[in-house]
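Shipment paperwork, digital attachment
Item: protein structure file
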Amino acid sequence: MLNRLTDNLNFQTQALALRSERQRMLASNIANADTPGYQARDMNFAKALRDATAGAQGPGSLVKTQSGHIPAATGTRSDSEMLYSTAAQTNLDSNSVDMDRERANFADNAVKYEATLRFINGTVRTTLDAMKSPNAG
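Attachment content:
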């Protein structure tokens, strides 16, 4: 029973970390919309989540081999795992940021981030309710 609970929480934690990282990436794209030569970046979220939950040790991840090591931040992607966005329309300054697409992706990711937080909150609340004594209420 406890394994199912921790597996669910681990999955949601990984998803939350990846959503947060993607949000930073999209915010960087929006912030650099007027930077000449800037190439917009994004990630394949489904693949990144599959890799993170499978425990895959990709090129950007660190292994904690000694008890004194500081654990690596979960969900950090290496440059090789991030994708470049292709420009829908060519620009004279070679900037590939499409503000409409970036705003839509930013809003979509924010909604999914909030949903993940609600899933975690609901799981914790359900677990706490299950642990309460029936005479306490």
